[in-house]
Write a structure and sequence with these properties.
Length: 211
């Protein structure tokens, strides 16, 4: 099968902002780890750390405010073959920033209800979850339901979850130590997730769902 050059967008729901996100966020680090494996499947990745943007409350794409960064992020989603929600676990749920994304995408569901068509059809979705305690199954179930309702395709094993005490709130683990743990423990899981995400995106690139 011909393999197209694909692009993935990671929407990262860490509450850390600025350079602190890329340096100290476990969700960001795990996203980079998965992106490395996606690169082996000819997928180029882009990262949006949500805390660095002004995403206003609302349930529509545009909320009539020039300071709102959501329309720009939405355009990135539309231009991506693969969209990955990456979130830490907060009290058994996705982060508040990830929930804000869900709320702002609600207009897409409104359009589906009216027209039967979705802007997200033929796009693939994936999920990244990090934390030091349980909650991943609930988050994955919640996000998968949301993706399905919007028309995304979630492939088998298209998620990457790491729950480890070294990821706790005040952990003294460096990013290098965290990445080594990912490499030593989750390389095969990440490779399988990346291969399946890329396979499904490539399949849909060549064989669109019927209108």
């Amino acid at each position: 099968m011909y393999i197209a050059r694909l692009n993935a967008l990671f929407l990262i729901g860490t509450l850390k902002s600025g350079s602190d996100a890329s340096k100290n966020s476990n969700a960001y680090a795990l996203s980079e780890f998965l992106a490395k494996h996606l690169e082996s499947s000819k997928v180029q990745s882009d990262f949006v750390s949500l805390a660095n943007y002004n995403i206003l409350p609302g349930v529509y794409t545009n909320v009539d405010n020039s300071d709102d960064d959501w329309p720009m992020i939405f355009e990135k989603i539309l231009g991506s073959d693969i969209v990955i929600f990456a979130t830490p676990v907060w009290w058994g749920n996705q982060s508040s920033l990830m929930q804000r994304v869900i709320e702002r995408l609600d207009e897409v569901h409104d359009e589906i209800m009216k027209s039967g068509k979705s802007k997200m059809i033929n796009k693939v979705a994936g999920i990244v979850v990090t934390g030091d305690s349980d909650g991943a199954e609930h988050i994955i179930g919640n996000l998968t339901n949301f993706f399905n309702a919007l028309g995304f395709t979630v492939p088998p094993f298209g998620t990457l979850t790491v729950l480890w005490s070294g990821l706790q709130k005040h952990s003294d683990k460096s990013k290098e130590e965290v990445l080594k743990y990912y490499e030593d423990t989750y390389s095969s899981t990440a490779r399988n997730a990346a291969q399946n995400l890329a396979f499904m995106a490539n399949l849909l690139k060549q064989n669109h769902f019927p209108d």
